[in-house]
Amino acid sequence: MKARALAVVPVLALMLVGLVTGASAKTVGETNRPLTEQVRHQLALLPWYGVFDDLQYQVNGTQVILSGDVSPLHSQTKYDAEKVVKKIPGVTQVVNDIRVLPLSGFDEQIRRAEFRTIFSRPGLGRYTLGTIPQIHIIVANGHVTLEGRVINEMDRTVAGIAANTIPGVFSVTNNLRVGG
Question: Do 117 and 149 form a contact (C-beta atoms < 8 A)?
């Protein structure tokens, strides 16, 4: 009985060592992830980032350039994005070129109408699933831009056609990209 108990001790010690080294390897791996992946991850976690906002970034060495558009109701997202990216290890400079769209009741009506029209189309509702929709609807002074990714060319075309059906829209630019 005593021999069995003594045999268990080395096994437990090895398991404990494995847990400790596994935890430290994970921590090191987190800081060694490519900077672009860390920036993407932090931007995806922003609380007010949604369907009417489009955040983009470019990594040049240790400098990160933020760009895109945020709706006036989510203007804090511009500053939150800069703040979280500055905290990433390895980032030395953040250039914040994110544009806060002008406040306009007319644009808000278009945003809601575009959302209802695009995502009520068969097959396009799936793009609203998840924490961050895959299609972003940017409306500035009556001009609509679709940004993001869709699975196939058909979805891209259907979204563009649907966006063009909203009365009062001056133009629609379909920048949706096809693929993963």
Answer: no
pLDDT in tens, 95-116: 999 999 999 999 999 999 999 9
Q: Assess if residue 121 is contained within a domain.
A: yes
CA 51 to mean position of chain CA atoms: 10
Put simply, whether the predicted model's pTM sits higher than 0.85 gets the answer: no
Residue 70, C-beta contacts closer than 8 angstroms, at least 6 positions apart: 52, 53, 54, 55, 77, 78, 98, 99, 100, 101
Residue span of the structural domain in which 123 resides: 105-178
> Among 45, 78, 100, which residue terminates a domain?
100
| Chain-centroid distance, C-alpha 110 | 23
Based on the fold, state whether residues 42 and 94 are members of the same structural domain.
Answer: yes
With CA atoms as reference, report the closest residue to 78 among 110, 104, 46. 46
Distance CA 65, CA 85 (A): 10
Residue 95 sits in the same domain as residue 125: no
